[in-house]
Amino acid sequence: MPSAADRDDGTRRPRPVERLAASVALVALPAALIILVVGAFRNWAALLAAVVALLVGVIAGWHVVTRKRLRRAAAGLVAALAFVVLLAAGILADLDLSRVAVILVLIALSAATARIALRRRARTATVTRPAPRPARPVLLMNPKSGGGKVERFGLVDECRRRGIKAVPLRPGEDLRELAEEAVARGADAIGMAGGDGSHAVVAEVAARHGIPYVVVPAGTRNHLALDLGLNRDDVVGALDAFTDGTERRIDLATVNGRVFVNNASLGLYAHVVQTPQYRDAKLRTAADTMPHFLGPDAVPPDLRFTGPDGTEYSTAQLILVSNGPYLLDRLEGLGTRVRMDSGLLGVVTLTVRDASEAVRFATLQATGQIRRFPGWRQWTAERFEVRSGGPLAVGVDGEAVTFEPPVVFAAMPGALRLRVPRHAVGVSPAGRAVHLLSRSTVAALVAVCLGRAPDGTGRKP
């Protein structure tokens, strides 16, 4: 049974050690910033050169992304020269290494103590309970996923040792049919060892039949396992969910009736994954596609939708709809989710209208502040619809799909009974993250200092 500490949802008054940690966190970071500013003023010429080089580099980087052929090559050369100037400015600044060391130590101290002070806020309010061992567990597995993780980790033999029936997916077989057949034969718990697209298929079958589902991270990226707080490197350990697990409810989401576990996107990324060359040359395909969406001759995508305040929009370069809202500071990796039981979709739209906005977005993206960009909109909803004059390319959990409009997204609150190993962390990176410069984190630290409980819901205010 979980201890009282494990059941704590963060609503109790802070302990003395947490109040002390919050005080240290609030003092250490401003001290580091003061030392940094003082050092910068002492080397103002080098600082000015670095700022100019950084600005030129950002503008050149944007042209690398949005231009073709010779213009892209020329912009790449300018970006490289800007980097050289930036590096030279750092050398000419004659930095005091002891001062740099103190700054780094203070920043690290602030981050560590902030995490201690807010550690209970990182725990979600999700209710978990011990789950009895299933009598007829089944694990479906894709031997090709993750570069052959099924064979590399010996999952068939590991399943045999634990009394789990292993069902490898063979060429030409339909994964959904295999899952339905397993349930028809009496499976009382089912899992999937594969990528997130495969998890969506089997999870939908498990949810429809009301039986527990197990996630085994045998894919390449395993975003679902990451957000569930599983150790993505412990593929074999994930099998313990069948034999010694706990159970909780999580949401699923649908796009035109198709279930997804992570996200579905329209616009730039959706067209990238639609390209036949994407699987073999991801970076090159993305580079070739971006000018058509972001370049000076780009035609705005026909993506019509309604914003959270009822405003009608006619285009966006990117629309991202997720099963639970993402915590996003940058677009790389698309962030992680604090929780997956809110009963809500996360909706993000990005619109870049001209070159000046593009430079501003690139700067905010580089500094992890994309939510401050005017063309960035992020909200939650139970349902979301995108309209268009023709078929729409959609990337669903990384797979290319085409739908006839309207494309309708809907949340499925608590649809899936999820089993996880008892030893799993159970908290996503978003739940553990501490953003020292955000107003919500500073407010939470001040509350702890004053002896008040920070937000204990696990949601980012």
Please supply descriptive tags for the structure shown above.
461 residues; alpha+beta; Tumour Suppressor Smad4; 3 domains; 6-stranded antiparallel sheet; 17 helices; disordered N terminus; disordered C terminus
CATH architecture of the largest domain: Sandwich
- Report the sheet-strand fraction: 15-25%
CATH fold annotation of the largest domain = Tumour Suppressor Smad4
CATH class of the largest domain: Mainly Beta
How many domains would you count in the coordinates?
3
Rough outline: globular
Given the helix and strand composition, which structural class is it?
Answer: alpha+beta
Total of helices: 17
- What is Rg? 24 Å
Weakly predicted, low-confidence segments:
1-10, 456-461
- Biggest sheet overview: 11 strands, mixed
Write up this protein:
This protein folds into three domains: 16-124, no CATH class; 129-250 and 414-429, Probable inorganic polyphosphate/atp-NAD kinase, domain 1 (Rossmann fold, 3-Layer(aba) Sandwich), CATH 3.40.50; 263-413, Tumour Suppressor Smad4, CATH 2.60.200. The longest helix has 27 residues, at 16-42. It starts with a helix and ends in a 12-residue tail after the last helix. The chain has helices spanning 4-7, 16-42, 44-66, 69-92, 97-117, 119-122, 149-152, 155-162, 175-184, 196-209, 223-227, 240-243, 268-274, 282-294, 355-366, 429-432, 439-449; strands at residues 129-130, 137-141, 165-168, 189-194, 213-217, 245-255, 258-260, 263-267, 304-306, 312-313, 318-323, 326-327, 336-337, 345-350, 376-381, 383-387, 392-396, 399-403, 407-421. The strands form three sheets. Strands 1, 2, 3, 4, 5, 6, 7, 9, 10, 16 and 19 form an eleven-stranded mixed β-sheet that branches. Strands 15-14-11-8-17-18 form a six-stranded antiparallel β-sheet, with helices on one face. A two-stranded antiparallel ribbon has the order 12-13. The chain has 461 residues and is of the alpha+beta class.
